[in-house]
Amino acid sequence: MSRAEKLITFMRNLTAEVDFSKRWGVDYYLSAAGLDVDTNYRRLGLGTHLLLAREKIAQAYNISVTFTFFSSPASQKTAEKAGLRGFFEKRWNDIVDDKGNIVFPGLGDTYCKVMEKKFE
């Protein structure tokens, strides 16, 4: 299984573990599968602006909450700048397969986080 397939499988399992509709009492929400900015354009605030754009999308479609899975400390910091707050986190080294092997070796003691923002 490729690293991307492992990540998608993990995200599917995480989605099953946390019932987002039940958590917020909504029928629908705005979500994405992470945040990535081309290395040539990093440190310009683009990630923050992309996340802030969700508010206008949410208003246009009457959506009250957004959440996303953030896999790196840098993207988590960007999400915090955009007003998202973490509600679920898991240490990468604690994610193991059926045989007890670490699924994402090399990520050390960093965490993956699911972060959310409620819109008023």
UniProtKB/TrEMBL annotation:
It holds the Pfam family Acetyltransf_1. InterPro entries: Acyl_CoA_acyltransferase, GNAT_dom. Gene3D superfamilies: 3.40.630.30. Residues 32-83 form the N-acetyltransferase domain. One of its GO terms (molecular function) is acyltransferase activity, transferring groups other than amino-acyl groups. It comes from the Eukaryota. This is N-acetyltransferase domain-containing protein. The lineage of its organism: Eukaryota, Metazoa, Ecdysozoa, Arthropoda, Hexapoda.
